[in-house]
Amino acid sequence: MNCPVCNRPLKSAKSIAKGIGPVCATKVNKIDNEAPKDQLKMELKVE
Ligand SMILES: [Zn+2]
Is residue 2 part of a domain? Predict the structure, then answer.
């Protein structure tokens, strides 16, 4: 299985479970943090 963001093979079990590499997961989280406040509130409730 490859990371959908950078297309590199996922090596760790956690990355495979998430379906994304750790570096790209961080990038995606940063993008999510820039999302509208309503979406951010929804994410905080989940956590
Ligand atoms: Zn990646």
Answer: no
Tens digit of each residue's pLDDT (9 = 90 or more) over 1-47:
999 999 999 999 999 999 999 999 998 888 777 656 665 565 656 55
The total number of structural domains in the chain stands at 1
Query: Looking at the domain assignment, is residue 6 inside a domain?
Result: no
Alpha helices in the chain (DSSP H): 13-18, 22-33, 37-46
Going from the Cα of 11 to the center of ligand 1, the distance in angstroms, rounded, reads: 11
Domain that holds residue 26: 13-46
What's the 14 CA to ligand 1 centre distance in angstroms? 13
Gap from CA of 13 to ligand 1 centroid (Å): 14
pTM of the shown model: 0.57
